[in-house]
Amino acid sequence: MCGRFTQRYTWTELHALLDLIGSPRNLRPRHNIAPTTSIDVVRAGEAGRELVSMRWGLIPAWWKKSAKEVPSTFNARAETVAEKPMFRDAFKRRRCIIPASGFYEWTGGKKDRQPHLFTAADGTPVLAFAGLWNRWRDPVAAEEVLTCTMIVSGASAWMEAYHDRMPVLLSPQDFAGWLDGSLGTEALHPAPANALREWPVSKRMNATGVGDDDASLLDPLNSP
Asked: What pTM did the predictor assign?
């Protein structure tokens, strides 16, 4: 699965890849994003593709309990996303793209977990993850909340050395078809082996709290 990732790009870089509408913004770089926090999401709006902030962890519109009682929905499996009650309505009606600069996976045992960072092999600043989004009304706060999930497929042969799942990477030629729903589950396949590069990083990023979200987290382990 994918439980941590990074968003550290500029508006210009996002706009160049995704052809966004709206005025340029100063985007805060984030290096250690965890589920249930707010993330950048691109969806199709009436006037074009728009950048919106959403809670990472999808909550279906029919959910009547609190957000804390939702099971883990920050990832949706490509093989079942069209049928699972949590995701099937969003798969039919509310697609999105989650921009990222990279993502993390771990190797080793529970007491010695080594994080690895994965980024575009060619140095491209933005990866485009396939996602879904939804609107949910918080029954306690009586407020509308926008939520999203990241779709993960089985791992490529190269990725299997690190994890058995990986985020689905969309190519630019697939953006329109994914967002308008004309592409189906056939688009949800592992990325080619040459699409990504990897290096181990500090175990400091295993935590989520003060001092665990700075650019040095991305440095290769034992780098000068």
From this structure: 0.96
